[in-house]
Amino acid sequence: MIFYMLSHEPVRYIINGLVATFVHYGVLNFNIIVLGVEPVGLANFLAAIFGISISFLGSRYFVYTQHVNAASSQVIRFLLLYGFIAIVSGFVLYVWSDLYGLSYHFGFIVATVIQMMFSYFGNKVFVFKKELRSSGIKMKIKKWLLILALFGIALFSIYVLHIKFFRVDVVFYSAILDGVLAAVVMGVILFTLSYFNSFNGFEKSQMLFSFILIGYMFAISVPTVLDRSLSFYLLEKIEERGGGIKKSGFADVFTKEYMVEHRLVDVRLTEQLASGTIEIDSNECVKLTNKGRMLTLFSRYFRKNFLPKERLLMGEYSADLTDPFAHGAVDVSQAFDYKCK
After folding, report:
1. Does residue 60 surpass a pLDDT of 80?
2. Which of 13, 178, 182, 228 is at 20 to 30 A from 319, Cα to Cα?
3. What are the structural domain ranges in the chain?
4. Euclidean distance between CA atoms 38 and 12, whole angstroms
5. Checking DSSP bridges between strand 316-318 and strand 278-280, what pairing results, if any?
6. How far is 99 from 39, CA to CA, in rounded Å?
7. pTM confidence score
């Protein structure tokens, strides 16, 4: 049974990928926790080099065993392919963790899946060439580029139709839904049109999964960022005020203008209601649900234990943001009583 499974190239590819991923993830944690490499995108870029090296050896001697091109050609092509993949992976982690402050553990999963997509097709059609299959491979590449372009058109079209003609509760969730719908449309095309029969089921599944990831990246990187990014607001506000604002005035800008102009309280409460983390009772008291409590326990634990202890804040390294409530500017004993009765 084991030998039968290993006779299939996709199975060998998955095994090789798991081993390379384990090495990559281990080095990433070593870079961040032990060496303290910053930013996270750089730490992941360095870790990717180790994972890629293991991936090459496994690909050459275990996965793609019927290759005919010379080893020197394979090394050059492999380095070109994975140099590109490493840059993409590092960029994904930079955007995910350094730009948006999200967990690098989850960001690593997203980057790894994207890397897997590029790796499988890149190695199969570019690095480890097989004899007498160049015409078929070229045709597959053309079809893959075609379906990718169709997905991009479908995603953009569905997104525009959604925001123009339908109501939206939460921008992030609606954009994710648009990505899923576009992937479903591509799935129908891939599995029903005979034109795409040159792809096997595994390859079609990979493409669908990659489309969902691309849709997710679009949702979080474009509409969601523009909708809720404080950094973009800061830049837009400086431009709106003629290109410059006194540093001492930013506290008022954030508290007296940002909160009002972006209806920040309404937006965030709407998002949390849609997520099921809060509920508002008949007395207008906002309460955590069980889901909200679990999420809060996780976020507080993660913040205290897995966010940087030495983070650069206006020229000084500080651990304040690992426990922001301990450094609050409001004296709770003197503040108005906002607790529910």
Report:
1. no
2. 228
3. 1-131, 133-225, 228-316
4. 34
5. unpaired
6. 10
7. 0.52
